[in-house]
Here is the input.
Amino acid sequence: MNQDSELQELKDRLSKIEEQLISSEKMASLGTLVAGVTHELSTPIGLGVTGMSHFISETKQLRKLFENQEMTQNDFENYLKDTQKMADIVYTNLLSAKNTIQSFKRISVDQSSEVKREFLLHEYIDEIITSLHNRIKHTHIDLQNQIDQKIELNSYPSAFAQIFTNFIMNSLIHAFKENEHGTIVISATQDNKNIYMEYKDDGAGIPSDIINKIYEPFFTTRGDKGGSGLGMQIIHELITKKLNGNIEVISSLGNGTTFNISIPKVIL
Here is the structure.
């Protein structure tokens, strides 16, 4: 085997290893999503169970009064008032659980498949944010979705789920210190052919000596905080190859980071 063929074989092996690692990163992201959604469901379901237990108890007491011919109009009115209040609480929490499950279902299915479909960008970004709520709520970060609600595209939602999950997690890990207040803004405009998205945080910014390395595989400055060094590379690969788009970064130390992304509205 000559040197050229050995070099090509090594490149092929490294490429396969990279694909496997990226796939592992995607599955780890899905695992984080599952854990977060499980935590998010525990509160509304728990409150729903508590509410129904209270409703059953109040009903038993009223039935007892009725059977003993001791029920007064005041007893009945108090029962109606209490059970209506409890029904409202149960309904609100079950609706919250329903919305969480729907968001998780769409995001998880999209992350594990490569199906192209039409979707509203603002609505889908909202679902991604909802799926990450368990991570975001423990911070002081104000995450704003300022995308025009009318922007629609025919593309791969799985790519958008991975891109913006990685963007947000990257900001939480790298841009802001623990308990630091900050803002993340996601916005987008469109013309006849393309969508122009902006992801912006007002965090620490990226030093000039490493800004050209952020898309390199395994490059991370926060391995101790859960950074794998693959998040930004996945973002770059998905935007430039999967979505046939472009991405540029504008950042300096202490002045936050902005990613400008342009992609076609329809992927052929």
Observations:
- Helices lie at 3-67, 73-111, 121-131, 133-136, 157-175, 231-242.
- Residues 122 and 149 are 5 Å apart (CA to CA).
- The chain has a mean pLDDT of 82.
- Residues 3-107 form one domain.
